[in-house]
Amino acid sequence: xxxxxMFTLKAFVNQLAFRSExxxxxxxxxxxxxxxxxxxxxxxxxxxxxxxxxxxMITYSILNTLLFALLLNRVSSKxxxxxxxxxxxxxxxxxxxxxxxxxxxxxxxxxxxxxxTVIPSxxxxxxxxxxxxxxxxIHFIAFLGALLMALILSFLLGYLVSLLAFWFxxxxxxxxxxxxxxxxxxxxxxxxxxxxxxxxxxxxxLPFQYLGYVPAAIYLxxxxxxxxxxxxxxxxxxxxxxxxxxxWLWGKAVRRLIVQGG
Amino acid sequence: xxxxxxxxITKTYRQYRRFPGLxxxxxxxxxRQYTEEDAVNNMSFTINEGEAVxxxxxxxxGKSTMIKMMTGILVPTNGDIKVLxxxxxxxxxxxxxxxxxxxxxxxxxxxxxPVTDSFDLHKYIYKIPDSAFRKNLELCMSLLSVHEFVxxxxxxxxxxxxxxxxxxxxxxxxxxxxxxxxxTIGLDVMAKDQIRRFxxxxxxxxxxxxxxxxxxxxxxxxxxxxxxVVNKGSLVYDGSVEDLxxxxxxxxxxxxxxxxxxxxxxxxxxxxxxxxxxxxxxxVPRGESTVFEHVSRIASQYPVxxxxxxxxxxxxxxxxxxxxxxxxxQPISKIG
Lengths: 262, 336
Known about the structure:
The structure holds two protein chains of two kinds.
Chain A: H1 2-16, H2 21-44, H3 54-70, H4 75-85, H5 88-92, H6 98-129, H7 137-168, H8 172-185, H9 197-205, H10 213-219, H11 225-256
Helix pairs in contact in A: 1-6, 2-3, 2-6, 3-6, 3-10, 4-7, 7-10, 7-11
Chain B: E1 2-16, H1 21-30, E2 34-48, E3 52-56, H2 63-70, E4 78-83, H3 92-98, E5 99-103, H4 115-125, H5 130-143, H6 159-170, E6 177-181, H7 189-205, E7 209-214, H8 217-223, E8 226-231, E9 234-240, H9 241-248, E10 252-258, E11 271-276, E12 279-284, H10 291-301, E13 304-311, H11 314-328, H12 331-335
Parallel strand pairs in B: 3-7, 3-8, 5-6, 6-7
Antiparallel strand pairs in B: 1-2, 1-4, 8-9, 10-12, 10-13, 11-12
Helix pairs in contact in B: 9-11
């Protein structure tokens, strides 16, 4: 395992080469949060609706904007790059599990984002917009668990897309589709409780909600304990399901592998 | 003992048909017509422990595909392949631990990090014990003079420097077999020399089996006693450089400097290769009369200042082989 942590470390160090980007990211996050805050102030007003207050929505927006920076969204473009340039050959001649290598490499980038983007943005947003504390200790612990699930699920979804790219030799359309599904069903902008009952029912069966809605809703205490367990159980089922599919697809994909150029 | 056994290996690439033009490109989306092309066709050979084998062939002969199958990256369409007793693509990770691979055209180094970091990472990936790592690193670094640039980021290295690092790295985990896919491509003479010397040492002294593909015949001459020549996915020659030269390189090149330009010479049995006035180059086949007889016959008719006789270099031998292959398409019985 220490081998794979080395990849996390290297990916982290590699990112340090792009340090000037930190300020731009901070600025970008600031605007993203500002816009959402203004929208919710306009929509809900200062009084708050029956179920949701402006403070809750501000917290929800901050959490989701920052969560997005942590997710392992770059897996499929990394694999795609390797497939297109043929450098996948160099990755496969090492005595390594390719998916684990991708995962830990991605975690290195997330770690970098966490330290250099998420924490400063969080402090900034707290000062400028205000943020609610977690609903309870239980909810906070569950929130951390949900973050972990979000990381794993975002990796698995990106990895599945990249495996499909072994057939299509391009991941663009697939990643685009995945991005669309995440935008619609993750509830990262609009919480699922605002969805119409039928759409909310669909969203709550899919894995995408774990990439946005679930962690933030848990943090805000929007789920009681029974719901909490159900959500976590469903998330675990999704993780196992996607793992099985990914494992099966990997076996097929390697046989399809075509190394480009030379 | 054979360390690599390739038996009837075929690799077929399937290519979906594309139609030209805009309408054609739309049509391509719906077609399931495809053509199949054998990159490697029913190939069989064995390589013994400690050998150094040159794998040679024109562009598109399927050399890289074969290397990739032996390293477990590509799965053959048909046939059996055993490397160190295991099927490489079924035991990819176990196989990877036992082999070293260098691709001349792509880097395995960490582009943004100093060379030492890539070495360190390699140590972790292959789980190399400390002492062995230090010993191998020291040896490789001194033989390949890597010391001077070991702290530089990889992206700042010249091609020659980078290739030396790649080769050093491929040997750190003491592989039993070293695969090199065009290791000297694009390098200057000095870098090539150093790499060849190093590979020869590794093969002769550390008994590492070497399989290398190249287009540079000097690589073969200096490193590999045995060569495999492939064309269009099939094996067309398996043997030593000398044997091939004896089979194909029976001609001699004769350069004669005349005192005065004798004008156009037409001597039966020999071909004029190059005419520079008083210096003429002939190609003389070994036949009924020897090269000396030809030269002395010319010298008796015309005043000759100097004459030199050269055997065909290996480049010309290979060129001849490729040309022969292209014109015949039924080569194996002819030269095998």
